Predict the 3D structure of the following.
Amino acid sequence: MKKPCWLKGSYIQFKITFVFFSLVLKFQKSKKKTDKVLITSFGGLGDIIVRQKLIDLIAKKYGKENIRVLVKNNPEVISIMGYESIYFKKNTHKNIFKLVKLYNEILKNGFKRLYLLETMGNSELYFLKYCKFEEIMGYECEILRKWEGEYKKVLVPTKKGKVLDVIYEFAKNIDENSVKNSLVPSFDITKNNDNYISVGVGASGKSRISSPKKLGEFLNFIKEKDLMLKFHLLGNGKIEREYGEELKKIVGEDKIINKVGTVDLLTVIKEIANSKMYIGFDSGLYNMAYALNKKIILLASRNESSGFYHECENIAIIFRNEDKAWKEMDDSIYKNREMNGIHLDSFIEAYKSFEERNEDIK
């Protein structure tokens, strides 16, 4: 039997923290409001990247100098975008000392407006209800609907579909003349076409990536075409590191440079920027390659949400061809049958389509 949420330790800890927090609030004095705007971007790397132009749109309206972005992941990406960030440390909403410190920092800035870019309610952001903003804009969600206060509140309808469509819905509430294509992220970083392909070996879970045997099959095809070309593996964490080591065995140690977990995010971004192309799965690094306008081959599954399957001439998305027979791949760890069933022919077709358009990847 599933334990009710109110019996879970994390929920109890959250509630106890807010009992003490409500006592602290009684002794807090209101600060003078300024023209500063607080924007929340609490998703992962990919979420932050695809919201870049939405943040730019808010900055255009109120001035870049007035923007601060509250994040719990990848503050360095916010810095690349040209904005200052406020960092939400892990479990701040469950620790009274961390929570009060963050609350005071936000209060000290005198933010007048709050833009919540999350599409779902988030208990980590509940404390913002007490920061006395004059205006709030966010996607429709249960938490925001219940917030009370003497402020103007705009709820943006949450629609299903491509992430760019969801962002566009928000953008129209900031500037009714917004153009959807202008919201495509674009990072202004120097790019080269060095003699290697960047390969992202991770995603949000094992169920969203193929077996290394399948990815290795595709990389071996490229290896046979260009004996001098190398593959730089990118990602983070023990599982992705081990995945990279398996690829080494399949493709050859002389062709694979496994950089998973050995370099920081800024170096990873430069690795993608300077590569001939990017190959990988639906992940934050894939979205970074998208923002860098690199050529991308994305291994995808029709069983997963397609919100981040961007429609772009530089992205070739390959699926299992349902019209072709395919051999079940024996992998007890990476069991995504859709991705493991992608035919080599589909990969070759995608790779050659880029060859025909650009001599650099031959």
Residues 164 and 183 are 7 Å apart (CA to CA). The longest helix spans residues 9-25.
